[in-house]
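User: Show me a protein chain along with its predicted structure.
Assistant: Here is one chain, sequence first, then structure tokens.
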Amino acid sequence: VLAIARELAMYRKTMNISTREFAKRANISTFPLARWENEERMPDILNLKNWAEHLGYKITVTMEPDDGDQ
């Protein structure tokens, strides 16, 4: 998840969108957004999905059993 957050942060910066402007567009607070981008915290999957959609990304999550435990 942190790798995705890092990638989205880089994309936001290349689009010249400030943290404040992006947070406003994505309807989230700037404080958690900055913490996610700085890898201090991990966004929950719903916030990450919302964040990605505002940057034109699509995130899909696939859950599969771990065959190594059997």
